[in-house]
Amino acid sequence: MASTADFRNGLVLNYNNELHVITEFQHVKPGKGPAFVRTKMRNIKTGRVIDNTFNAGVKIETARVENRPHQFLFKDDYGFNFMDNSTFEQVVIPEAMLPFADLMKEGQEVTILVHAETEQALTAELPTTVDLLVTYTEPGLRGDTANNTLKPATVETGARIQVPLFVEQDTKIRVDTRTYAYVERVK
Questions:
Q1: Which of 112, 131, 115 lies closest to 123 in space, CA to CA?
Q2: What phi and psi values does residue 96 have, to the nearest 5 degrees?
Q3: Per CATH, which fold does 129-185 belong to?
Q4: What pLDDT band is residue 48 in, cutting at 50, 70 and 90?
Q5: In angstroms, rounded to a whole number, what is the distance separating the alpha carbons of residues 125 and 178?
Q6: CB 22 within 8 A of CB 80
Q7: Could you give the CA distance from residue 20 to residue 159 in angstroms, rounded to a whole number?
Q8: Rounded distance, CA 62 to CA 40, Å?
Q9: Backbone φ/ψ region at 32: left (φ over 0), alpha (ψ -120 to 50), beta
Q10: Stretch among 69-83, 105-119, 137-151 having the lowest mean pLDDT
């Protein structure tokens, strides 16, 4: 058991008999009335984000989870297959539980969130940035630099990313996995 004072981003709660992870929270102390905590929580199974308000000091049930390093192997009809780097056991996670599935390439290192009591894999997280090769993009128009103009590009995993005009085909770029945003070119 924990209280609202223990809230932090990434904390996993057992809320309404389902596991939710806190993505944002804000402690509010109004001038009149008791303090409360506004939260945005993502359901781990469905991926749906809900807003909820907790009164300050309320006891909540947390779930014990562990982050374990895994390597992405391949995708098949059952989902995405990962291998534990220490035990070499394979884990399958359905595509619905991976919001960034189109940014993963074979051999990619990921962190899998595992429920400690049931040993069930809940979700996987990529590093904050990944390096990908641009496989297709239209050539940029020369002189169109009045403002920060972007164009669509397809990367080696099939994801479509908005990139600046100077990025060409066969260029390696760094992509932010949280926002699908172009970060920089990789040398």
A1: 112
A2: -65, -25
A3: OB fold (Dihydrolipoamide Acetyltransferase, E2P) (2.40.50)
A4: confident
A5: 10
A6: no
A7: 27
A8: 16
A9: beta
A10: 137-151
